[in-house]
Structure formats: structure tokens, C-alpha cells
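Hi,

Apologies if this is the wrong queue. I'm a grad student, and the batch job for RGS10 protein from Balaeniceps rex produced an output file that my downstream script rejects. I'm not sure whether the problem is my script or the file. Here is the sequence I used:
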Amino acid sequence: LSWNEAPLPAVLPPVRLEINDSEGHSSSSHQTLKGTSKWATSLENLLEDPEGVKRFREFLKKEFSEENVLFWLACEEFKKTQGKTQMQEKAKEIYMTFLSSKASSQVNVEGQSRLNETILETPHPLMFQKLQDQIFNLMKYDSYSRFLKSDIFLNHKKSEEQEETPPEAQTAAKRASRIYNT
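Support response: The file is valid. Your script probably expects a header line. Output copied below for reference.
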């Protein structure tokens, strides 16, 4: 397998935490990560969250590579398409938008020069899978790590954390800081 044919990892199950009380008794808690915490665990988790996709697109737009995530999303939508006519229409739309030499939002994938419109005559749900996997890996090993360090991600994470902290706790923290910093 080459790097672009590697299978995609399965979605991770929710994190199970063992919590012990003061007597050492175990109580199991089923905790699922949300928002930026979940986005930071994997690109798959980020792409499952509409808000995550929105923020990632915003980031990719600044990097002039938004077409990558748009192509990936179009392929995901294409897999759900029913009926040969609808499939042909959507396949043609994906081809003309992302893969054709005249595409308005062309993605850069291996083997693109060999693609032509004849593939559109006999569409099937996984016809773009190899190309979609290439784009996924490009995002995963390139833009995703930069996204996690970007202002877009970090500012969203910060605002999430502020929303989670109850106002009374913020006030208590401010009071404590005034007491101990005098």
C-alpha cells in the first residue's frame, strides 16, 4: 500500500473514564468529547461536525485550498445519491467542478490527467473513492495539523472554554486572583 491507498481509520468510540471516589470505589462514566476537543482528536471527527467543517473551510479558504474539503464533502454526498440519472448528474457536476482541466475549483490528485468524461457514463457510488482518499490524506497530513495551530481553531476553542465556565466561577477566580496578587 502506498500512502494514498492506506485505509481510513475507523471512527473512535467515546472515551470511557474510570473515576474513583474517596473510598476507592470505581464509578464508570461515559464521556463524549464535544466541539474543539473532539475536532482535535481526528480529522474524521472534525469532518463529522458541521461547525468543525465550517471552521476548517474558513481556514482552508485563507490557505487557498478550500476546494479540497469541498471535493471531499461532494464525494460524501455523491455516495448517498440514488438513481442512475441523479448519479450521472452529480458525477458530472463533481467532475466539472473539481477534476476537469477546466474546473473552477480544481483539486490536485494523482492520475487526474487520465480522467475523462467517459467515466461519467457508468457512475457508481465509489467511483471517486481513490481520489477522495488522496484529498483526505492531503488534508490529514498537511492542512489539518496547521488548522489545529491556527487562530481560527484556537479562538474558537477559547470561546468554547469561556462558555463552559459558569459566571460565578469566573467571578470567584477573579476574586481569588485579587486576594493572592496583592
